[in-house]
Design a protein that fits this description.
The complex is a heterodimer of chains A (about 250) and B (about 550).
Chain A: E1 2-6, H1 15-28, E2 33-37, H2 43-47, H3 57-63, H4 68-71, E3 73-74, E4 80-83, H5 92-97, H6 105-110, E5 119-123, H7 130-138, E6 141-146, H8 150-164, E7 172-180, H9 185-197, E8 206-207, H10 210-213, H11 215-218, H12 222-225, H13 230-246
Parallel strand pairs in A: 1-5, 1-6, 2-4, 2-5, 6-7, 7-8
Antiparallel strand pairs in A: 3-4
Chain B: E1 6-10, H1 12-19, H2 24-27, E2 35-38, E3 43-51, H3 56-59, E4 63-68, E5 75-79, E6 85-90, H4 94-101, H5 128-137, E7 143-158, E8 164-174, E9 185-190, H6 195-206, E10 211-213, H7 218-225, H8 247-271, H9 275-295, H10 303-329, H11 331-336, H12 347-369, H13 371-385, H14 397-417, H15 425-444, H16 451-491, H17 496-528, H18 530-540
Antiparallel strand pairs in B: 1-9, 1-10, 2-7, 3-4, 3-7, 4-5, 5-6, 7-8, 8-9
Helix pairs in contact in B: 8-9, 8-12, 8-13, 8-14, 9-10, 9-15, 10-12, 10-13, 14-15, 14-18, 15-16, 16-17, 16-18
């Protein structure tokens, strides 16, 4: 079971859109996929038309009174399940704080799902917290959407440095440019030069297109309702790079 | 834990209503909280159910289907007893695609001749499906056991968020393109986390006239249409004897059943589908020979004497191929046990064994196609059918069974007790034969005894047999290894590394044999001790009717 997490300290950079589309593509490739929506805003849960509610809330999951397995819901797509968000996830940091080795807790919770899933996507809330640290420890590959600015490159460097300090397993990093506006010179420049200079930056960039925003109207991944769109093609390319990084078959 | 399917059968009128375009929603109102939505166009799929000849998947509660749609690749689908999804995998091999595209025909024949395709597990694509199947299927090949064509209409049941909470398939299945359709099935597949909604839908369906809950699955339905039922082959003796029936009739019944097993395995052995056809055929022959030796005297005069040499011929015909099968099946373990040599060093040896086996298999197939075999088979069946079944004939089956099991048991005890640390290997070999005779006696007459006590007696004997088997098999393999090395040196240039690796294998076999020899005294003590003896006596001394 490979764990891929979409992570960025900033919000609104395309984490959820990436998790939802890549999870769909992974399932379409034949993998058994679980997407865990860890963000109390519940955007991924909303996109799959699932109610953002977990019996007992985040507390039951973290304290083990309810297994992750029991909280999972099937999406409308074959082989793709969702562990819904719950508003109580806003307190996950507090709950983790009282757990033993909190930075390893998420990995321990996911371990029993190993036989049922080939791929798990974690869609993280934007923050630096105990929860994100636990996600970073659990993940095999971090998918880091970047807005093409100099500052976001600096953030990537900080993240890399932080992970370098991990003892034992370290996740691989695959950053990629998201919400690229081709009309902006800076966007074009950074999105072209950086992937050539850095191995941890994907050559695929996700453009800023209104069809991606349509996902919240259609309540489905763009790769399912507009598979021939430029946005869908970009996600397909990004999935190929992510699958390669995770050692998974892409199709 | 996966959620089970709910399956229903529709009667003709309900199907006609649905086929005439009346939406299923009209037949089954699902209330204000749900609504129906068609999911794609009706599509025709070809279904081929696969299992081993001895139904290993079915017995393990698994169903494997190869599904072919008009577009896209065929797909393997593995489900559990209640239809729950376990694994799926696109079929990538050209042979799989060809099999899935074959016109569906009723496969009423038990003979594998009617089903030319077969798959060894190693031919399936790597992935979760193969991982699930491998431990169940083992060395057996997967064969088509039933085929059908399904015309399936898919619907979704949506909640008020337009979220799918269940999938519904109306499946009109026919055993072949021109065969009459079977009663259509309506299948509710709950989505994970939405079981209560699927249950509610199932409740609504049970209230609809012309809809009844299905009592059998689609595989059983397809098999029933072909006059078959799952599990219709077992290598075990499955006859039910009556304690008071005449011994001659009981022995003839067992022998007829063994002949059925033997004949069922002939086509698969000739076509070399997997090694277990020959294995089961040989076991049937050995059991027949043992039954003739143990109880042939109750059959009409001269019958046993007439057929014993015939079955010896058949047994001898099958021995060379099986011996090489045993070698090749154990090759992986043999190679893995190498310490000094590498697995690659043994490759010329494996190739030599494979060539030799191919030649022996041709000989075996020729022998089984020979009129001598068909004559033996026919004459034996006729002779068994002619065994008189007078109800007053004596002894009874139970009396005979008690006598012969005790006699075989006494023989094992006497031969075993005579073995000392100084005894020659032949003494252990002879004891192994006696132990096999006792085992076969227990199996042949097994249905006459209390199942618990019978199982206990076999379990203790099996532990002794395993030890004796290890001792003898390693001896045979060491002898053969020397012969193989000689053949290889005479025939071609053999790399020195191969001969050294074979030497290492021989040393390993010698160690195993030594270990088995050391274990023997303890194993025999357990078997021959007061506990073991009293169990056999209790088994055969139970109150007789």
């Amino acid at each position: 079971m490979k764990i891929l997490a979409t992570y960025n300290i900033k919000g609104g950079v395309g984490k959820t859109a990436t998790a939802v589309n890549l999870a769909y593509l992974a399932a379409k490739a034949g993998h058994r996929v679980l997407l865990w929506d860890l963000d109390p805003q519940a955007a991924a849960t909303f996109l799959f038309r699932i109610r953002p509610r977990v019996k007992g809330g985040g507390k039951a999951l973290i304290q083990g009174t309810r297994t992750l397995d029991a909280a999972i819901k099937g999406t409308d797509f074959d082989r793709l399940d969702l562990l819904p968000a719950d508003f109580t996830y806003r307190n996950l940091d507090l709950l983790l704080d009282s757990a033993r080795k909190p930075e390893r807790k998420l990995g321990r919770l996911l371990a029993p799902l190993r036989s049922g899933y080939d791929v798990v996507f974690l869609d993280c809330p934007p923050s630096i917290s105990l929860l994100s640290e636990s996600v970073l420890h659990a993940a095999d590959v971090l998918l880091v959407p970047l807005i093409p600015t100099t500052l976001s490159v600096r953030t990537l460097d900080q993240l890399t440095e932080f992970i370098d300090g991990f003892e034992g397993k370290q996740p691989g990093i695959l950053a990629f440019f998201s919400m690229i506006d081709r009309r902006k010179r800076l966007h074009k420049e950074i999105a072209t030069t950086l992937p050539a200079q850095r191995k941890d930056v994907a050559s695929t960039a996700i453009p800023a297109l209104s069809i991606i925003e349509q996902m919240s109207v259609q309540r489905a991944p763009v790769v399912s309702f507009a598979p021939r769109s430029a946005a869908a093609r970009s996600y397909v390319e990004l999935w190929k790079e992510a699958a390669d990084r995770a050692g998974l078959a892409a199709d | 834990m996966r959620d089970a399917l709910r399956e229903f059968v529709l009667d003709g009128a309900t199907l006609r209503a649905a086929s005439d375009g009346v939406p299923l929603a009209g037949l089954v109102p699902v209330g204000p909280r749900f609504r129906w939505q068609p999911d794609g166009r009706p599509c025709s799929i070809r279904r081929t159910w696969l299992d081993t000849f001895d139904w290993r998947l079915y017995r393990a509660g698994l169903t494997l289907e190869l599904i072919s749609r008009p577009r896209g690749p065929a797909e393997y689908r593995l489900t559990g007893r209640d239809g729950e999804h376990i694994a799926a995998q696109p079929a990538t091999q050209p042979a799989d695609q060809a099999a899935a595209a074959r016109p569906a025909t009723p496969s009423g024949s038990r003979s594998p001749r009617a089903a030319p395709q077969s798959w060894l597990i190693s031919a399936l694509p790597e992935g979760p499906l193969r991982e699930q199947l491998a431990p169940v299927v083992g060395v057996r090949a997967l064969l088509p056991v039933a085929r059908a064509v399904s015309t399936a209409r898919q619907l979704r049941v949506l909640n008020d968020d337009d979220k799918t909470v269940a999938r519904v398939t109306v499946d009109q299945m026919a055993p072949g393109p021109k065969a009459p359709g079977l009663p259509p099935r309506l299948v509710i597949t709950p989505l994970r986390g939405y079981v209560s909604q699927a249950d509610r839908l199932a409740e609504l369906l049970t209230d609809v006239d012309g809809v009844t809950e299905a009592s059998i699955g689609p595989l059983e339905q397809a098999l029933a249409a072909a006059g078959r039922h799952p599990g219709d082959y077992t290598g075990k003796i499955s006859v039910r004897l009556e304690p008071q029936q005449p011994a001659a009739a009981a022995v003839a019944t067992v022998l007829t059943s063994l002949l059925d097993t033997l004949e069922a395995n002939v086509p698969g052995t000739i076509r070399d589908i997997d090694t277990e056809f020959l294995h089961d055929l040989r076991v049937a022959v050995r059991r027949t020979r043992s039954a003739l030796k143990l109880a042939g005297d109750v059959l009409p005069a001269g019958l046993a004497a007439r057929f014993r040499p015939e079955f010896k011929w058949l047994g001898d015909l099958t021995t060379p191929t099986r011996d090489l099968d045993v070698y090749l099946l154990g090759f992986g373990g043999m190679a893995a046990g190498l310490v000094a040599a590498s697995c690659a060093d043994l490759e010329p040896f494996r190739a030599h064994l494979a060539r030799k086996r191919a030649a022996e298999q041709r000989q075996l197939a020729r022998g089984l196609r020979n009129p001598k075999f068909s004559r033996l088979s026919r004459d034996w069946r006729e002779a068994l059918a002619a065994v008189p079944a007078s109800r007053r004939a004596r002894p009874t089956a139970r009396t005979l069974a008690d006598q012969r099991i005790r006699k075989a048991h006494r023989q094992v005890l006497a031969d075993g007790a005579a073995i000392t640390p100084a005894s020659a290997p032949e003494a252990l070999h002879d004891l192994r034969k006696r132990a096999k005779e006792l085992r076969y006696a227990l199996e042949i007459f097994g249905s006459l005894y209390d199942p618990g006590a019978h199982w206990q007696a076999i379990r203790e004997l099996k532990a002794l047999q395993d030890c004796l088997g290890m001792f003898q098999d390693t001896q045979v393999q060491m002898d053969e290894l020397r012969a193989f090395a000689g053949e290889m040196m005479a025939g071609q240039t053999v790399p020195a590394a191969t001969l050294l690796a074979m030497g290492e294998v021989a040393a390993g076999l010698a160690r195993q044999q030594h270990a088995a020899r050391s274990e023997f005294a303890g194993r025999f003590r357990d078997f021959a001790g007061p506990g073991g003896q009293s169990r056999i006596l209790a088994l055969t001394g139970e109150a007789r009717g």
